[in-house]
Predict the 3D structure of the following.
Amino acid sequence: MSITALIVDDSATARQIISYHLHHAGCTIIGEAANATIALKLFREHKPAVVTLDLMMPRVLNVDSMALLRTMKREMPEVAIIVVSVIAFEKTRNDFLDQGVLAYVHKPLNDFNFDPVRIKLRRVFPELVAAQFQE
């Protein structure tokens, strides 16, 4: 069974980098969104197991990152949300971890700072470990 992922970031470059890391972790990318409103539509349509979430995106139709996070967790509590952000404040990080995100990683994303996320994903989704050995 494939672990599906939705990437939410207003930067096309960031989406491409995140896609690379998720793919190498064993995830199948089912969609990308440049804002929270589009992300919510894709989330409801595809019900991904993993969602990456940028915090610094333009608010569209009064939906921002925190509103998206709360809606996703309310509608699908088991979704694994990974915040990928330039915001390095510990309070912001803790606020999102308190809301139930799986991981909070700082941009720029690279192998070094994504490795703890990959480990957490494999703990939550053991099938990712098996998928790695099948490649």
Q: What stands out?
A: Residues 3-50+62-134 form a domain with the Rossmann fold fold (CATH 3.40.50.2300). The chain has six helices and five strands. The mean pLDDT is 89. Strands lie at 3-8, 27-33, 50-53, 80-85, 103-106.
